[in-house]
Amino acid sequence: MAVYEYVPGEDTEFKIMDYVGNPADAKGMVKEITLPEIMRTVDTDSRIGEAGEQQRLLGFEAMEAAMTLGGISEELDLLIKQTMAPGGGSNSITVQVTGKARDRYSNTNATIKYTLKGEVKKYAFHSSLTPNEKAEMELQMTVWGFGHELGANSFYFEPQARKWEINGVNVWGS
């Protein structure tokens, strides 16, 4: 059995696309990314006739992601500002991260890919303008669609569209 671990490296690709799919390459700019978690909401209660409290799974909690940028291109800066424009129906972005995962036992590699769809929630231009400190920018986004691929396996989750797709098959409610 292969046990894959993500291997950060120079060949990791970061792409950020606007709502139409126009890409802005973020390679070399992203220093850190915090991926969303899929978490169920739980209702805990005690009902008449039950021996104690029960936990019942409900829907899903909201997801978010964050990125720390060590620099930014004019192209990416413009894309982020355009997608944050208030009142527009074109505010969504897609972030794609593609890299390598290595099997810890055989040293074979598999492609690993994350896809995040959502809206920019926070764009901090520079965290610090202090001399002798490298400026960083933070980007936070709400995530309403999350995809993960590892080798031949693919997964996509979008609760509002009732999608829980495993290898292209939507198993939501089946």
Plain-language structure description:
This protein is mainly beta and 174 residues long. The chain has one domain: Pnp Oxidase, Chain A. Helix content is 6%, strand content 52%. The strands form 2 sheets. Strands 1, 2, 3, 4, 7, 8, 9, 10, 11, 12 and 13 form an 11-stranded antiparallel sheet that branches. A two-stranded antiparallel sheet has the order 5-6. The mean pLDDT is 85.
Let me know the average pLDDT: 85
- How would you characterize the largest beta sheet? 11 strands, antiparallel
Measured as a percent range, the helix fraction is under 10%
The shape is globular
Q: What class would the helix/strand composition place it in?
A: mainly beta
Give a short summary of the structure:
This protein has 174 residues and is mainly beta.
Layout: helices, strands, pairs:
Layout lengths: L3 E4 L5 E5 L5 E3 L4 E5 L5 E6 L8 E7 L2 E7 L4 H10 L8 E12 L5 E16 L12 E14 L2 E6 L4 E4 L2 E2 L4
Antiparallel strand pairs: 1-8, 2-3, 2-8, 4-7, 5-6, 7-10, 8-9, 9-10, 10-11, 11-12, 12-13
